[in-house]
Amino acid sequence: MAAIAGTLWWAVNHYTGRVDRIPNVFPSNVPADAKPDPGKGGQTFLLVGLDARSDLPTTGKDAKAAQWKPGAQRSDTMMLVHLPADNSSAYVISLPRDSWVPVPGHGKAKLNAAFSWGGPPLLIDTVQRLTKVEIDHLAVIDWNGFKKLTDSVGGVDLSVNGVKEHMSGDEALKYVRERKNLPRGDLDRTLRQQNYLRAVLSKTLSSGSLTNPLKTKELLDRVTETVSVDDRFSDGELRDLAWNMRSLRTSDMVFMNAPVSGTGMVEGQSVVHLDKSKSTMLWKAINADTVDDYVANNDVDRLGANPR
Predict the structure, then answer these.
(1) 25: Cα separation from own chain's centroid
(2) How many C-beta neighbours within 10 Å does residue 210 have?
(3) What pLDDT is stored for residue 210 in this prediction?
């Protein structure tokens, strides 16, 4: 344990300054009555996965393509990540990209259209108005970068229809991009994304990785190539977060979908309808830092042992 703690302490201090920062991600000129109230505990992140279908990295310190150009990139993945004040767990809540929601200045549209039209500021504004949850920070990952991280940990084991398969980065990326042949479409796709994220985190956080200095350096090099955060997220805050969450493992994390009432067609598009009543309960639980109670007392579309 001393070796793990020592390696983590070195990593936290050495790598926080190398994480790429994205400027001007938070919306401005938002009417006062449209701004969410601050939460009563913990922190809430908006995690966005980009699917630019490009070989050029769009996030991280080695980014060669812009993080956002109007209409050029899609927010393929949107997750609210709530970290309770006691740092005992983490709640990862997928917002289906096909959710039919109000987008400020554009009427109703699919949620991922907000990023395509207005980049991070419009997406954050849309999510905050939808949930009335204040977003403390933004984190952006590039699935192509995640593919390299997957290969760095030796691939991952993922269950597909009850059968465990060992996948390389390329194979895992195809797994999370699959959509048409899934019974619940976008909803099953989000669970696949969660399953992939959980598997990579599990391998990355394993004791074997953290006690090998060379392996740790390689992994953290890959992480900084893959992840970018908003420029309000200071090195000090990032160090505190990494150190406070050092004991967290994937077994302490809950992965789930936002509550939905069903799917349908709107204006010729396949969409997902969020369940307003149940979603409101979840958003209030995030604000009150009581997501543990919400999960314990509600039927949750939760990542299980054998997601599709």
Answers:
(1) 16
(2) 20
(3) 54
Domain spanning 2-297: which CATH class is it, in words? alpha beta
Strand ranges, E, within the chain: 20-22, 43-50, 75-83, 90-94, 100-103, 107-110, 137-142, 156-160, 163-167, 227-230, 253-257, 260-266, 269-274
Specify whether the CB–CB gap between 212 and 153 falls below 8 A. no
Do residues 79 and 255 lie in contact, with contact meaning Cβ atoms separated by under 8 Å?
no
Domain boundaries, the chain: 2-297
CB of 104 closer than 8 Å to CB of 33: no
Residues 46/25, Cβ–Cβ less than 8 Å = no
Q: Residue 277: in which H helix or E strand, if any?
A: helix 276-288
Rounded Cα–Cα distance for residues 227 and 145 (Å): 8
Distance CA 227, CA 241 (A): 15
User: How many Å apart are CA 232 and CA 19, to the nearest integer?
Assistant: 12
The phi, psi pair for 295, rounded to 5°, reads: -65, -40
Per-residue pLDDT tens over the stretch 48-78? 998 654 443 444 455 544 555 655 566 778 9
Chain-centroid distance, C-alpha 80: 6
Q: What is this structure's pTM?
A: 0.86
Distance CA 230, CA 195 (A): 25
Cα Rg of the chain, angstroms? 19
